[in-house]
Amino acid sequence: IYQSKSKIVKMCWIIFVLASVCVASYFVYVAINKYYKYRTHEDTSLNDTFVDFPAVTVCRLDDDGFSRLKTLNVPRKGDQDHIEQNLGVMKTIIDRGPKDLDRQALPLLSNYLQRLLDPENVLQAFPVIAGYLTYDYERFIVSCQFKDQDCNKTHFVEKMNGKYFNCFTFNHSEIIKKEGPTSGLSLVFYLDTLQENELLDMSMLDSSMRFTDSGIKVAIHEPNTIPDMINDGVIVAPGYSTNIALKESVFERMESPWGECDKSRVIITDIANEDTDIVYNRKTCMKICQQRYIQGKCGCLNIMLPVPNDLKNEKYCFYIDKDNILQNSNWTHVFLEELKRMDCENKHLLDLPDSYVGQYKCDCPLSCSYKTYDSLISQANWPPQNGVRRFIKKYMN
Hints:
Blueprint: H1 7-37, E1 51-52, E2 55-61, H2 80-100, H3 105-116, H4 122-125, H5 127-133, H6 137-140, E3 141-146, E4 149-150, E5 156-161, E6 165-170, E7 175-176, E8 185-189, H7 196-200, H8 204-207, E9 215-221, H9 229-232, E10 234-236, E11 240-252, E12 267-268, E13 278-279, H10 282-298, H11 322-327, H12 331-348, E14 356-357, E15 360-361, E16 369-381, H13 388-395
Antiparallel strand pairs: 1-7, 2-6, 2-9, 3-4, 3-8, 5-6, 9-10, 11-16, 12-13, 14-15
Helix pairs in contact: 3-12
């Protein structure tokens, strides 16, 4: 401006600079005005009141239940012929895969063979075998008491889980009026953990498996919500009496313009295989969005994410089409396509951050009201040495 000889140019630049300063000053004023108009504040209060009993989900951690497939005398579920047929397909893949697959498929087989043999993936790869490995309520929970009263199978909802096969949720919406163990839920589990001689007697197939923890995975969550067993669950070891004391915290968020929550989001109604409406929360909404992203990219579903109703007939990405493999002479081509789906799922799972999926943002606002549970865990050896006989008489008949 200083070097310009034209007064018109100088005047235009001066007007432009002044206008810019005025506009900037206006927006700064608006921002400051809004900040003081909608002041944020946080109120914390401690109320001595009755509370709703939370939902409790328990899953069995199998130390190596897959090794029990070698004893197929009387399957608990499913047909023995179907189980042996599934094992035959697995044996074909293990024995003939490295010989028959072409160069394109060998790297994929090398990457995913170990995962294919992992017990955690049996549910989607070989559902019949998974049905054999699941535990019935009666063989898993041998005693149940709630508020010092006996409870039974009707008080639990059984759900399949991509990592733990089947889990049981105690979702009893009842008011708790006093604290203490007699006002809560008391469960006794039968785990049937492997003994040392069984661990030493494993076959070559078993030795390729990855050992898992032994015990129970427990998640305590808000009623009618889907628990995140992997991230929110705690492990309870076998051979102990474990006491979990809880403190409930209730949070209320404010709507716009103070916050970003949405009071209209109350329930989620489009989740497959759910008997009741699920209470809305951002984490579940995000997982449904991520499931749609995986299905759109790979044409299959991820076993660990909730399935929307409109996708409930889709196959899981790790599903093995055993009929096609057994009947198709060119079985390697069929298996290669399945390996490609697995590879696609694995790659796109890396594209799932908290807020964005791929190129677009999931429509998942925060909940305006939610509860959390802080836990204090204590343990003691159980049963006590002087009570072993009473334990056997009560629970092992």
